[in-house]
Amino acid sequence: MKPFFSFAVPCCDVEPYIVECLDSILNQSFQNWECILGIETSKDRTEEIIRKKTAGDPRFRIFTSERTGSCSATRNTGIDMAQGEYIIFLDGDDTIADGCLDRLYGKICANPGADLYPCAIVANDEINGKQELRDNYGQDAPPMTGVEATLYLEHRLHGSFCPMLQLTVHRREFLVEHDLKCIRGLRHQDSEFSPRALFLAKRVVPIHEPFYLYRIRPNSVQTKAKGADYFMKDWSIITKSLLAFYGKVSREDGFDARVVPCWIRQWVSRMNYMWFSPKAQSQIPREKRAEWLNFIFEDGFDSYCRMMKSSSFPQRAAAWHVRMFVKHPSLRWAAELFFCVYFKLVNRNAEESISTSIR
After folding, report:
1. pTM of the model
2. Which H or E element spans position 303?
């Protein structure tokens, strides 16, 4: 029988957590699932424990790969290998709630045919001992298109939303149809993958099920990050990819331009903050910021300039100075001076709110 759910589970150095993760799946009352486990080269007993735990159960399929530093490669292979109708991205150090698959199944069957079913997660912060329910959609949120969902979230979450992959149940054929994959090696996969998936979805049905139990632990990649420029490479790759995505979809028939101001606030404001905020200028050498900005725009400014045509005058002025910083190295000091004033006088609160989505 074809499974209803396919789990794609990246596993690397998760020896203390993987048994709890697998038990949370095995102990579900709803059993029509498969679990694809991608084990990257680990420094602990992760692979040994997984093979012992899953031995003899054909619902578990295992593949191994070299260490990549992120979940992207495993998630991509999980999409390719999956046989289920819906994919759930579950990390090897997290779990799912008791009985949640039965509830998810019932809610999906009650509203069939959506590409994305956003749910809720319970974040357990092991650093400060706090627990938080995270649901990006209001309880009265109706089914909507991906464009409508993009605008809804941008308004509801005030410009700093970044839907986690794990928060949403994805229809596999939708992912395959649009070749939606994560960029290999990228650590902030959500920020690059989720905006594209959301825009391309024909139907999004929020179902608010708090099925995912997310562990925030002190020794993870995110919590160990140090230095203002730690993720600059990642954000450069993300920004370049999203600008290229805009360049592609904006030329297609029927493009809904309502998303453009939202994307400017999301992507361009984040780039401005990370490269030119007072904090960035004081903590990240100009040469490093120039290196990664040159990477973003190595193929030119066409998509960026077309996007910014629909922006406000202050945003267009900022874009002009970004181009000056890239194209005229001798004038980089002038661009930086402009942004010192910009962050004091223009959209200060909106710009600084972006910082919450990159920490």
Report:
1. 0.91
2. helix 302-308
What whole-number distance in Å separates Cα of residue 123 and Cα of residue 315?
35
N- to C-terminal Cα separation, the chain: 43
Beta-bridge partners for 61: 36
CB 180 within 8 A of CB 196: yes
Question: Where do the structural domains in the chain lie, given as residue ranges?
Answer: 5-222, 232-357
Q: How many CB atoms lie within 10 A of CB 113?
A: 10
Task: Classify 5-222 by CATH class.
Answer: alpha beta
Each residue of 111-157: pLDDT tens digit?
A: 999 999 999 999 888 878 788 898 999 899 999 999 999 999 988 87
Per residue in 182-231, pLDDT tens?
999 888 888 999 999 999 999 999 999 999 999 987 766 554 545 566 67
Q: What contacts 24+ positions apart, CB below 8 Å, involve 15-18?
A: 15/42, 15/44, 15/45, 15/46, 15/49, 16/93, 17/92, 17/93, 17/94, 17/215, 18/46, 18/49, 18/50, 18/53, 18/92, 18/93
